[in-house]
């Protein structure tokens, strides 16, 4: 995959996903899919003790056997992370032919999607890609960004998430655009960068029409940066 690939965010809740492999790489991929709410199946001849413990405790469906082409049936997404390069390539080709999203960990050219180095803080999600050139560097950049974008951003986004539907519903388009632009402009971002959530919230409230604030769902504590709903 090249730099011109199309970056999206997938909702995997309840989607049938398959992970092939029982080692550390497969385990990392499995945990991310599990956290995303995917309906999971894992197939491998062997599982690491750590992965086996996770499979047992999480009640994820798994089979200790060889892969068969029929395992791709009804799958939305497949990650093949076995130690067998030929098997990974075969699964990649078969999945692509079947129109399935597939990530081949040791063959990016057979993959039709890549996993980005990402971190989440509340509603803020930042993902980094080096287009497969250096996953280690992508992870390093991600860690630096995670330090730079502190908890003030998450608190402010939580505030905006509750308010935005009211702005959209109650304000005419031009005024709505101007207000939303001000709520996310460089001055607000500078306050958040300095960790000044309370000041950012006060600045936001000063430019929001009072009638919208009166409709605001839930009380918000400026001191604690928390909702009480």
CATH class of the largest domain: Alpha Beta
Assembly status: single chain
Give the termini distance in whole angstroms: 44 Å
Largest sheet: 5 strands, parallel
What integer value in Å does the Rg equal? 22 Å
| Average residue pLDDT | 91
Low-confidence stretches: none
Shape, principal axes of CA atoms: elongated
The number of distinct helices, counting runs of at least 4 residues, comes to 9
* Percent strand: 15-25%
Task: Based on the coordinates given, report the CATH architecture of the largest domain.
Answer: 3-Layer(aba) Sandwich
Number of domains: 3
Strand arrangement across the biggest beta sheet: 3-2-1-4-5
Count of distinct strands: 9
CATH superfamily of the largest domain: NAD(P)-binding Rossmann-like Domain
CATH topology of the largest domain: Rossmann fold
Helix content: 40-55%
Question: Given the helix and strand composition, which structural class is it?
Answer: alpha/beta
